[in-house]
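Subject: mismatched residue count in predicted assembly?

I count 446 residues in my input, but I want to confirm that the predicted structure covers every chain. Input:
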Amino acid sequence: MKKIVTLFLLFSMLATMLLPSTAFAESGDVLGHATYTDISAYINHYPITSYNINGYTAVVAEDLNYYGFEVVWDDVTRTLCITRNYATTEISPAEQVYNYSSVAGRDSLPYLETDVKTYVSGNLVESFNINGKTCIFMDSLAPYGEVVWVPEIRAIKLWIEGLPMQDYAVPEEAPVTLMYAPDGRTLVVETDQVEAYKNVGWYENESDVTVRLVSRDKRSVVVYKAEVDAYKAVGWLSTQDTVIDPTKPMVAITYDDGPNTTSTSRILDTLEFYNAQATFFVVGNLAERNPDFLLRMKDLGCQIGNHTYNHPQLTAISAQNVSYQLTKTSDIIANITGVRPTAIRPPYGSYNSTVSSVAGAPLILWSIDTLDWKSRNATSVTNSVLSNVRDGDIILMHDIYNSTATATESIIPELIARGFQLVTVDELAYYKNKTLSPGSAYSKIK
Ligand code: ZN
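Triage response: the counts match. Full output below for your records.
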């Protein structure tokens, strides 16, 4: 028994002596085949061949010999030790150091175990076996310098003090463009190849392959289009599409009596968040004091309608006064927004033949009255909409109550979840193919 042990020791000593310490035997049990990455790697701006392993950039340990490192392989213990050789102040000429290749966008390699233990500066680091060569992550070299990711050029760079820096005037390759796939993959392609890649489903802008999803509690997330169904399955919502589908249900939410309060801001925030549109029948004297609200409504694609200058009951005043109330308000709205209102909501829904004859625009009433002014209760307002709403409805609310703003935060996501498109009054008429006549009253548009 003792003899065998002695023999074995002798053999391993021999093996150690016979094998030069810098010989790199094939390492590891699992062999990965080299797959280049679209990420470039540099040491002091000298390029080094790199691979993408599990989304991280790795380099061949052996190659570090050329960059002022001492890389020592011990075949008996199957250990690779990487240290910085401080005696070295040279980096091998570029033509010697690498067989630099960059093939864009290949899939990354999976995790490849190796039985080789790799130490960097005495610390065990993760290592991988690619084509029989041991690779380590660029990040593992952090003890020797600064590892920097430069997203603009998709490069990872290690800067080592005391070693020469490559002149920055590295010959540039052909111009490249970063492209995106709907499943989140990225690809750097030569710019003159962009069209070819577009034809097979790649996009130039990340925004083309992502979509913003929202939640009922006003959280927001940007996901790749390929992930949308999975997110929706757990309750996330698409915001309203900017393209209205006339074959799908739609409703017009309307808000009267503003703008002048924080509640109008909250309602506009909610509309903006869900990319939904509504119609605001503003009161002229409040509009002229709060022009910014009208500009924001316009920016959000909302419609601004006329709700008279100071909210009289139009059936109780003269034709001349009706005309004054409506004209003055339309002038104010047009002066602020550049758009003359195309819809009137008579206060209290009150109109007669005199009002109709001088109105000059359709009178927009409602088919769902939330009675928000009376209840001042968000739950009640929400229920009055959600338990009654149907395609073509015009919903009456008032943007001057915080309870209405709170109700809006529930109503809008729920209507979107149910497949309703939230449109302005004019859009509702347009998509329902209805021409609204001046002076005529409409309570719904189907
Ligand atoms: Zn009113």
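Residues 1-30, 98-107 have pLDDT under 50 and may be disordered. Marking this ticket as 'not a bug'.
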